[in-house]
Amino acid sequence: MSVDGPTRTFRRQGRVVVVGASLAGLRAAETLREEGFTGALTMIGDEPHGPYDRPPLSKQVLLGKTPADGTALPRRRAIDAEWRLGVAATGLDLTEKRVRLADGQEVGFDRLLIATGTRARPWPRDAEADLDGVFVLRTSDDAARLDQRLAARPRRVLVIGAGFTGSEVASACRERGLEVTVAERGPAPLVGALGGVIGAIAAELQREHGVDLRCCITVTALEGDPAGRLRRAHLSDGTALDVDVAVIALGAMRNTEWLAGSGLGAGPRGVACDAGCRAFDVHGIVTDDIFVAGDVARSPHPLFGYQFLSLEHWGNAVAQAETAAHNMISAGPDRRPHLWVPAFWSAQFGVNIKSVGVPPMGEEIAVTQGSLAEHRFAAAYGFQGRVIAAVSFDHARWIDFYRERIESAAPFPPDFTGVDRPPGGVRPVPADFPDPALPTHGPTVTLSGYSPSDRRVTFTPARA
Amino acid sequence: MTSGTLLHQITDYANRADPYPLYAELRRTPVARQDDGVYTVSTYWEINSLLHDPRLSSDARNRVPLADGSLSPDPEEDAALPPSFIRLDPPEHDRMRRLATRPFGPPNCPRRIHDMRGELARMVSDLIDGFEGREQADIVDDFAYPFPVMVICNLLGVPHQDETRFHGWADTIVSALDPSPAEGAAERQRVAQQARTELGRYLAGLIEEHRRTPGHDMLSALATDHGPDGRMSQLELITTAVLLLIAGHETTVNLIANGALTLLRHPEVLGRLREDPDLAVPLVEELLRYEPPVQLLPQRTALADVDVAGTLIPKGSPIWLMLASGNRDPRRFPDADRFDPGRRDNQHLGFGSGIHYCFGAPLARLEAQIALTELARRLVNPRLVEDPPPYRQNPVLRGPRHLPVSFDGLTA
């Protein structure tokens, strides 16, 4: 009762502020209400729009199949919140428990959820970034502008960066019948996320679909005409390309600047938090009223050696928001850890790509089903003798099996005999990540508990 | 009681009307080895994970012969026709299913099912109009059977007037799916294979006609279409057509009949559906959980030793996935034996999961939604004449054989 009392009072009449009105913020708000929070709820978002879904922006929206303003997130329930949209949070006072807003106002809270996500990394030189024809793709406004420009049929589109966003943009351009050049600093598309073996397949896909793919190359300058319109791009191999449109797809930056000086452990890699989504302060002391979820969060994961993982995954945003919201209104023993196994998907060049686990931790990769040559396969990544991740191309229905392999630390190379064995047998090869940066291995951890919705960690000390 | 006798009780016709208490008992041993070497898996998470496990094969050719073959029938074995994709593993399965999907669903035909809405509603109205002037109808013979048959005929391009011809063959083939040990099981298999061959011959003739003069139906598309995977061979086409024709209606009949029965047993839900047709969507999902038309999948084989919930299933063992039992697993669904159309997080196993996930699911859903909504709306004061009604023999495709319902008239 002594523990429960304050929690119960807070549930009834506390004040929760959610900064970030996108996927994680919305799902957290819904979970708060779902689980019986009846206090005051304020949603703060820097975009003027209500919460919308981003995955379609680089797919259906760029194909002209869905309007950019047609991806509003479905609501699971009414959340009865005060919305402060179109106004960014600019500061946080931990002592007074107040969020400062760009319009000069302040909002007080008892508990705060930080879900400010990421933004597109801009082209580094402002003058070039400002040229008419240079785009990024993160928001629905970005997608609307780019879709409009693609509909005007530019002669050639340059996509800078061949990660998932860049590759999806290139795919959409080809589907619209536009000429497209992709410039990638690394040796292959998707190489940072999935490694060189899969990157080589992604490169084949792009070239088969008519993309002018150029790897191991950077764009040194974007050149405009006197009217400020993009005309040409200069590449590090000394060549130049005439282009009307350039899409900057250089990854994302975490929106943590507004927390500078607040005393929270926030920086370019995100806001550090514990497994229960409680933010750390700069001293590494866990706060009890500040929670964090979604792309901006960095949390330790026992399956991956307690490394702090920051994930830009749709499913992570939802799961972490639900956990954070639950923990915000629960007394200590009722709180749960966020133990989501990282997973993401992409659709490009007619292929459905799905991944689970943390591929970049993988040292080796082994194709376990299907065939690389046909671009239809499942492959497992190995790390220190266990399965750490898996990826599938048009083989998504097997992904649950691989997630279970990861969760149970199944041995690598995979030892199972299954359907659809690859023609040459299962043979591990180096996964070929450009910068492995492998973590040290800690004690082993297993996930236990009957129901995946009720997970707990069992700690098993390392053998001497 | 040993679990072996428990499985025999489940397949025993005497328990057909309510096998759920037996499933509950079976779940006490999530993975149970039966007397004849069959492994039953009866709990939700275990079934679900095996449905995604590449170490399980659907291809009967991977099975080690049982001491007693009676519990392991496979009407597709040794038949003149090659196995349909439901009985194949990847990559052959994937190729066949991709080819079959091209004229049926996304990405090539994303609106095919949606665009059938009007046609389905008309068929349903016509059938219910046929109840005019009567005080009683058999919801199976007068409604739940003829409706899906008309639908699959139109979709495939099979003349509906041939129904009397293929009905007998379909019945024979489906009755051989019954894995219950019984007198004359071998004879039943032989007769079923013959029926499958005859149905195949009949469909081969149709396919030839459609090839010459293609229409907008699936058989025409399959016979003439040329996608990135090429085209099905003649034998593949026939075997797929047999599968789609049979699976296209033998399961939906039970979904609709089980649905009508469940609604009549829960008049308050029936009343809500009458007021709010939107309830049909979650209602059908709950039906698929609560009374799934496919109760179990008796046709998987372990390709390797597989450890499931602490039990090792040896390589070559036949595995039965007890879908209907998993659907009532209280560790997955709170209050699992309660019929609750408002249930959330209803990831039931009614259509299976994984690569063999029911091909016709979108169509079956729509058929059941429209059929049940119209029944609820138009029958005035409907009542069950018999409860439980007489059931079909088959424990795999479980549903009432007849469902006599009396009513006080029809609304327009």
Automatic annotation (TrEMBL), chain A:
Alphabetized UniProt keyword annotations: FAD, Flavoprotein, Oxidoreductase
Tagged with keyword Kinase: no
Region of interest (Disordered), ranges: 413-464
Boundaries of every FAD/NAD(P)-binding domain copy: 15-321
Superkingdom assignment: Bacteria
InterPro entries reported in the protein's UniProt record: FAD-oxidoreductase/Apoptosis, FAD/NAD-bd_sf, FAD/NAD-binding_dom, FAD/NAD-linked_Rdtase_dimer_sf, Reductase_C
Low complexity biased stretches: 421-430
Pfam families: Pyr_redox_2, Reductase_C
CC per GO annotation: cytoplasm
Domain called Reductase C-terminal: residue spans: 344-415
Keyword field contains Translocase: no
GO MF annotations, alphabetized: oxidoreductase activity, acting on NAD(P)H
Cofactor(s) required for function per UniProt: FAD
Protein name per UniProt: NADPH-dependent 2,4-dienoyl-CoA reductase/sulfur reductase-like enzyme
Organism expressing this protein natively: Streptosporangium album
TrEMBL record, chain B:
SUPFAM superfamilies associated with the record: Cytochrome P450 (SSF48264)
InterPro entries given in the database record: Cyt_P450 (IPR001128), Cyt_P450_B (IPR002397), Cyt_P450_CS (IPR017972), Cyt_P450_sf (IPR036396)
Gene Ontology MF annotations: heme binding; iron ion binding; monooxygenase activity; oxidoreductase activity, acting on paired donors, with incorporation or reduction of molecular oxygen
UniProt record similarity statement: Belongs to the cytochrome P450 family.
Region annotation Disordered: where it falls in the sequence: 61-82
Record PANTHER family: CYTOCHROME P450 YJIB-RELATED, P450, PUTATIVE (EUROFUNG)-RELATED
Domain of life: Bacteria
Organism: Streptosporangium album
Protein known as: Cytochrome P450
Xref: PROSITE patterns: CYTOCHROME_P450 (PS00086)
Keywords: Heme, Iron, Metal-binding, Monooxygenase, Oxidoreductase
